[in-house]
Amino acid sequence: MPPVAARRPTTRTHHGDTFTDEYEWLRRKDDPEVVAHLEAENSWTMARLEHLAPLRQAIFDEIKARTQETDLSLPSRDGGWWYYSRTEEGKQYPIHARYEVSDPDDWTPRVLEPGEPVPGEQVLLDQNVEADGHDFFSLGTFDVSDDGGLLLYAVDTAGDERYTLRIRDLSTGTDLDDEVPGTAPGAFFAPDGVHVFYQTVDEAWRPHRLWRHRIGTSRDDDVMVFDEPDERYWMGAGVSRSKKYLMIELASKVTSECWILEADDPAGEFRCVRPRAEGVEYSVEHAVLPESVSPAGDAPRGGRDVLLVLHNENAENFELTVADVPGTGGVAGWGDVVVPHDPDVRLEGISASERYLVLYYRRGAIGRSGILRLDTPGGLVGRSGTSADPGAAPAPPAPEIRPQLVESGRPAPAAPVAASWRFEEIAFGQELESVGAGVGVWEQPNLLVGYTSFVTPSAVYDYDVATGERTLLKQTPVLGGFDPDEYAQRREWAVAEDGTRVPISLVWRKDRVVLGDDGVPAAPAPVLLYGYGAYEMSLDPYFSIPRLSLLERGVVFAIAHVRGGGEMGRRWYDGGKLDHKANTFTDYVACARHLAAAGWSTPERTVADGGSAGGLLVGAALNLAPDAFGGVLAGVPFVDALTSMLDPSLPLTVTEWDEWGDPLHDAAVYAYMKSYSPYENVPDDASHYPQVLATTSFNDTRVMYVEPAKWVARLRAAGAPALLKIEMQAGHGGVSGRYATWEQIAFEHAWILEVLGLAE
Fold first, then answer.
1. Residues 6+ apart with CB under 8 A from 133
2. For the CA atoms of 470, 474, 475, 481, what is the dihedral angle to 10 degrees?
3. N or C, fewer C-beta in 10 Å, the chain?
4. Helix, strand or coil for residue 615?
5. Do residue 613 and residue 682 come from a single domain?
């Protein structure tokens, strides 16, 4: 018999509503009875699924056999070194290494052969050595000083995302006495190589303070550089790619603020780019706009320091502006608009190097990259008074900006920035694809382009901007005779309750799911339907070796791009958050029903899959339409959302109010969240529910283990067939180490295949 959690009713009353919670006692993490219950849940789950052990082993072996276990990443150049990571067969974690640059003019990465010794290799950090003796290991910081002599790294051995920061002398391979426990990830060296900046967290585990440490001094002497008291705001900090500025970004879910400081004055005072205004988000990137360039395409000569600013004030999908760097006496405005707002194009990011600007944007539910050149005459083009389409071909040089691009290379008088810039879009021609142009270090003259799709293993190309020629440098190997032509992908559209069209991405193996002349499977296929739908996160096409084990057995993998994500622009996100959150769940149910109605599947052969906020999605969809699914897989699921959002002492709660609403102080938000929170809406009789598997981690600080533990207890008490698997030494991301990860994937895939009737 499965473990039965004791019913110990506690009540909470808010806004005149009293809710009785019988399983809240499971929150007592240090209580031996709670630990014993969780271990009993694990034992029951493993016993219940013991018959799947051969299938789990087969899937693990398949993943392993398709993976190049001994491999090397594509090296990236920084200063006088080529940096890369490599893996070795039998080892859980990567090894980080480098070798010296032999030709200072060589910027094209060299593909290293797996297993072959790398001449002059220097191992910087072997994660396998650092992880020895620990059940969990995560690397949160990895930064090399500009002179190449020191390594800054931080490790977490519990899964609670609290890192110990260390500095290693790379000439000796030994760590210095400098050590700081309890830091957030993302520490970095100042360009002077003398100072280190790191962040610490408050009681809610929110990064809120930035500290400056001088190498070789006591931690007691560290200086607090910045403190963010508003509990809604998280802090991030780093160095601009140009190495000219230190930057701080403060952001809530709806508002942001940036601060800047000259990097050659690390002990100076940061100054605000533009003070925060509620509901206004912006980000900045330092760039140098050339005053003159060489006809030969040499690096631009001289230039004007500017900030490229992406903001959404009166521009729902954001616009790109260029502004002067703020001086000590004041702050900069948004500056001149260079890519105006477009209701059909969501601008997402901008990167700058000495020669290029790369704009990242989204159109038609696909993420895209566009390039603008700074290093050749006519490379910076624009046309006043026209709407900038990031997908358009470059326009002819506009007369009004020609003074900035003097072909003789001689300095020219300053000229106003054009009203719009044109970016040349990079595309590979597939219906569903992910393309990302990589801007490396500041002075790097070439661009690298990453490319993948549901049927194309990840690849990196050297991209000649002048000709558009692409040279493949490295592609993730897939062993065992993988042929991309044996697989297919496509886009479907479901219609939501309110008439909104919701995109669905599909991928399958052609000979396992045969389509008729009408483009529909000749017989309904088993479907794994994944979803997320929160934080404006977009689910872009990606290749997965582990997924092949499902496709080979005839499963169709589908992604429901529901509202709350970012696939269709800011309006798509706003349509699935706060008081519109229910759209996320009804969109997902609409996608499941569409696939069944269109002949792709049947309800009993559809498994819902989602993790974290996606766990809330599938949990809510289960309550809305239990008849639409044959099974539900919920990873670290946010299924007790209302309880968490009522407790401001919990990690993340206050910062999350801008995403979900504040039920503690707002009765309408309380009632709305209670109407969809999965835990509160489990019916008294759930015996008609499909099978449920929830997975979680004991040290998860983002979605605490207690949420799925309570949910499973309540589901099972109501008669639903629910299982819980908990990792006792892991965090929100699950287990660490690639083999342990494959084992976890094999466990979940075996369960999915059994639910779909494919476990034989």
1. none
2. 110
3. N
4. helix
5. yes
Q: Alpha-carbon distance 743 to 52, whole Å?
A: 13
139 in a structural domain: yes
Confidence of residue 132 (pLDDT cuts 50, 70, 90): very high
Q: Quick one: 586 and 490 in the same domain? A: yes
DSSP summary character for residue 50: G
The span from the CA of 458 to the CA of 341, in Å, is: 32
Q: What is the tens place of the pLDDT at every residue in 282-326?
A: 999 999 988 765 555 566 666 789 999 999 999 999 999 999 888
Q: Name the token pair of 687.
A: 């015996």
Q: Which of 235, 264, 280 is the last residue of a domain?
A: 280
Radius of gyration from C-alpha coordinates of the chain = 27
Q: Which domain holds residue 177?
A: 134-280
Residues labelled as active-site residues: 612, 700, 732
Using a cut of 0.85, tell me whether the model's pTM lies above it. Answer: yes
405 found inside a domain: yes
120-126 long-range contacts (CB < 8 A, ≥24 apart) are 121/97, 122/97, 122/98, 122/170, 123/95, 123/96, 123/97, 124/96, 124/97, 124/98, 124/151, 124/168, 124/170, 125/95, 125/96, 125/151, 125/153, 125/168, 126/93, 126/95, 126/96
Query: What's the angle, vertex CA 410, arms to CA 406 and CA 400, rounded to 5?
Result: 25
Q: Which of 321, 318, 324 is nearest to 308 (CA)?
A: 321
Contact 435, 453 (CB under 8 A): no
- Could you tell me the sign of the dihedral formed by the alpha carbons of 562, 565, 569, 574, in that order? positive
pLDDT for residue 753: 98
Does 307 share its domain with 429?
yes
Task: Name the phi and psi angles at 38, rounded to 5.
Answer: -65, -40
DSSP result, 103-167: -TT--SPPPPPTTSPPTT-EEEEEHHHHHTT-S--EEEEEEE-TTS-EEEEEEESSSSS-EEEEE
Domain count for the chain, please give it.
4
502-544: per-residue pLDDT in tens? 999 999 999 999 999 888 899 999 999 999 999 999 999 999 9
Angle between helices 613-624 and 582-597 (to 10 degrees): 60
Q: Residue 5 falls within a domain, yes or no?
A: no
Give the single-character DSSP code of 450: E
